[in-house]
Structure to design on (812 residues):
């Protein structure tokens, strides 16, 4: 039997809450409207966009954070760190920090969180995505000093730890928590299931607050509805709008959001194993024609899968975007054909629905461009489950040549997170294998000194100039709509987190 | 009557059993949840680990046995995506959907009966033609488009109503209900009109007129009651369609109902939530049909269930 009184109460509370935000409320409660409700409030799922925009940084904090401008790792709950030897890092923790339930933040609390997050039975995305390549053994040196020893050298351990969100040691060890307790600037203040989540300022936070007293998160799946809510003052901020709804230059702020759209070529199957065919594919694409029509006019034609600001991004090749030159493409294909390359082989172009707005239209346009230069290409649009069959190893033996539409989002600030999975011989999403590239990736990612970025830049440059394993399209642009009541400048990280400490009422 | 209800309940139980089996096996034909729920870089070892943990690596028939055993003990499993009991999630969302669907259908029944009867009173008249054309438009217009247009007009331009949101304030309900009633209203007006035209040409209506009864009484008391059976049948069918098709309204207006929950679960291959939500929906629909059958008896004493 459903509790009707409770339901009625929820209705009234929701109505009261929403109307408090309607018509420019006088209090400093920020209303953020998201495209989707968080799936869970659990810390170890906080790096997923839908969850992170509510809980990451705002409720839970990590030991380190990645700067949205420099890509450098900066202090958060750890104030400094040093590498004691190849396998050991020492972290000095911030003093005087308390969790929202008054539990003290200390080295023991970090160890407890490592146990929670790294417990494979809990099915945590953070563990699955970032902590599978090595094992960590933490040792408490004293209350505010923690040593972490790894079984293999991990030169960017501080970067990895920017994904480990620390929850109170009183949080459940097995189940996912329903009530998030962190150290962040805002405390969980309840929710109306399916409707809204509320947080309030944590007066004991160690940092400097913005003037936002409380935050109410609501969600609407339709971009036009989110846009309308900001326009009429029902909400103050939405971090994501479809390009066709970003129609108000006064409110809509474009931002490069670390996402790059490109087509991955299966370089292991003829005719795509011939570099001239791969170059021809690149010359065949008219990127300019898609700008402002199929993708945002603010998108930037790309030459690599990481954006500027990520350590390892090569600015040297930024200006080397393939020009649209169908005649050059045809001549390269003719040259390959003369050498016996079976360029007439049917090629499968695999797109993914909803990977971006106009996903199908983009792929149809690209298919037509490939066909125009004489390639035998057919398009197959797939849902994510089927798409992963084409995108992730192991690929079937005897497969036909495939080009896969994909998107990459490196917001961790270090290209190592991109190079290994996409281009190493054993990379989960790689469709190429070159021992020389492998060695370069291994050397670059093992480097912890000032040359690290340069070494990774060299890999990108070599891939682009000498290997051509991709058809790079665009660094994508997202739009946030920011209401008249507040000041907020979206940045590279807005895609995964909306830091309320960066928002201020005017 | 009790015997009839028992018989119908038994039939429903058989239907439900078939449905449970079908949903369980069809859901698994959609693919592997591991490929949707794990990070994009997940390798085969991680996928295998996930499948083992969730019992998805066992033979399907064994999974089915475990599922049935658990359902019989009231355990619908936990959401693979949200790590919460699937039944709790469904029962949180269901009241919203029922509120929306039944309020909309009550409005549709009343308004379509009135309008359809007026049109049927003089078939072929200007009023009838206007009602027919407008009801056809109402039944054909895409609710997605109407919903967005209504928001832009009433919330953004005129600022009479909130754009969206859920609560007890009637202003939250006006736009969703307005959009939701359009299609069933259009269809039911057509059904009422056709049924009433047939009824108004019956002998008992002519008799009532000869006796000097007022036209209002003839139409809304005697004729409408006799014309109600097909109307209720179609209305029940429309209600079922509404419960299943609320996802658009819920998504656009931010109503936390079962439609969106179910679609999200299907898209994520969250089998426990798919199974729980379909089962709960089916129980509600079977109950509705039993109530409709009982309504037939109440409305027409000539019908006696055996």
């Amino acid at each position: 039997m459903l509790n009707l009184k409770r339901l009625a109460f929820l209705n009234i509370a929701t109505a009261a809450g929403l109307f408090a935000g309607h018509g420019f409320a006088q209090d400093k409660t920020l209303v953020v409207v998201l495209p989707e409700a968080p799936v869970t409030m659990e810390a170890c799922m906080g790096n997923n966009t839908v969850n992170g925009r509510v809980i990451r940084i705002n409720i839970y904090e990590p030991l380190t954070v990645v700067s949205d401008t420099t890509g450098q790792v900066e202090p958060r709950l750890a104030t400094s760190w040093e590498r004691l030897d190849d396998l050991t890092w020492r972290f000095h923790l911030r003093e005087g920090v308390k969790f929202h339930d008054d539990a003290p933040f200390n080295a023991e609390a970090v160890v407890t969180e490592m146990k929670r997050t790294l417990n494979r039975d809990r099915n945590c995305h953070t563990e699955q995505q970032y902590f599978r390549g090595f094992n960590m053994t933490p040792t408490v040196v004293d209350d505010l000093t923690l040593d972490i020893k790894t079984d293999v050298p991990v030169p960017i351990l501080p970067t990895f730890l920017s994904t480990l969100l620390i929850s109170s040691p009183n949080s459940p060890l097995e189940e996912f928590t329903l009530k998030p307790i962190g150290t962040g600037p805002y405390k969980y203040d309840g929710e109306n299931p399916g409707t809204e989540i509320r947080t309030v300022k944590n007066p004991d936070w160690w940092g400097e607050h913005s003037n936002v007293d409380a935050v109410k998160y609501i969600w609407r799946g339709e971009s036009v509805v989110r846009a309308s809510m900001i326009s009429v003052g029902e909400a103050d901020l939405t971090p994501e709008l479809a390009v066709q709804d970003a129609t108000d230059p006064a409110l809509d702020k474009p931002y490069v959001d670390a996402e790059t759209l490109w087509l991955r070529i299966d370089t292991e199957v003829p005719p795509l194993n011939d570099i001239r065919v791969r170059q021809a594919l690149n010359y065949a694409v008219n990127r300019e024609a898609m700008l402002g029509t199929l993708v945002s006019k603010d998108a930037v034609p790309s030459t690599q899968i990481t954006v500027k600001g990520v350590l390892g991004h090569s600015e040297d090749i930024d200006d080397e975007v393939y020009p649209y030159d169908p005649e050059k493409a045809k001549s390269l294909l003719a040259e390959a054909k003369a050498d016996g390359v079976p360029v007439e082989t049917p090629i499968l172009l695999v797109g993914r629905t909803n990977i971006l707005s106009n996903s199908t239209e983009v792929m149809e346009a690209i298919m037509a461009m490939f066909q125009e230069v004489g390639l035998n290409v057919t398009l197959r649009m797939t849902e994510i489950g089927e798409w992963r069959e084409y995108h992730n190893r192991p690929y079937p033996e005897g497969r036909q040549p495939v080009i896969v539409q994909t998107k990459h989002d490196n917001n961790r600030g270090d290209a190592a997170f991109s190079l290994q999975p996409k281009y190493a011989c054993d990379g989960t999403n790689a469709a190429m294998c070159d021992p020389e590239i492998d060695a370069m990736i291994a050397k670059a990612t093992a480097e912890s000194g000032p040359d690290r970025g340069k070494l990774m830049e060299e890999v990108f440059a070599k891939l682009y100039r000498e290997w051509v394993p991709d058809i790079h399209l665009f660094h994508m642009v997202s739009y946030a709509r920011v209401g008249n009541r507040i000041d907020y400048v979206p940045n590279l990280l807005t895609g995964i987190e909306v830091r309320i400490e960066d928002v201020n009422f005017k | 009557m009790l015997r009839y209800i028992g018989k119908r309940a038994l039939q429903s139980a058989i239907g439900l059993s078939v449905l449970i089996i079908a949903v369980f096996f069809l859901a698994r034909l959609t693919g592997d949840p591991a490929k949707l729920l794990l990070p994009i870089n997940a390798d085969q070892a991680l996928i295998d680990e996930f499948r083992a943990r969730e019992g998805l690596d066992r033979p399907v028939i064994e999974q089915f046995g475990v599922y049935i055993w658990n359902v019989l003990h009231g355990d619908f499993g936990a959401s693979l995506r949200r790590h919460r009991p699937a039944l709790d999630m469904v029962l949180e969302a269901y009241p919203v959907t029922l509120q929306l669907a039944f309020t909309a259908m009550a409005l549709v029944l009343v308004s379509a009966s009135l309008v359809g009867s007026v049109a049927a009173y003089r078939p072929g008249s200007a009023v009838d033609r206007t009602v027919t054309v407008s009801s056809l438009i109402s039944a054909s217009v895409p609710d997605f488009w109407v919903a967005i247009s209504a928001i832009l007009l009433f919330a953004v331009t005129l600022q009479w109503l909130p754009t969206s949101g859920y609560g007890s304030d009637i202003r939250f309900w006006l736009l969703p209900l307005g959009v939701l009633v359009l299609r069933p209203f259009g269809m039911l007006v057509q059904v009422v009109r056709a049924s009433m035209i047939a009824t108004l040409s019956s002998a008992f209506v002519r008799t009532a007129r000869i006796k000097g009864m007022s036209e209002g009484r003839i139409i809304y008391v005697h004729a409408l009651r006799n014309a109600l059976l097909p109307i209720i049948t179609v209305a029940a069918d429309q209600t079922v369609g509404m419960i299943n098709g609320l996802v658009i309204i819920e998504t656009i207006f931010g109503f936390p109902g079962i439609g969106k929950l179910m679609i999200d679960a299907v898209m994520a291959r969250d089998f426990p939530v798919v199974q729980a939500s379909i089962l709960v929906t089916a129980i509600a629909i079977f109950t509705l049909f039993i109530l409709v059958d009982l309504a037939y008896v109440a409305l027409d004493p000539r019908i006696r269930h055996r």
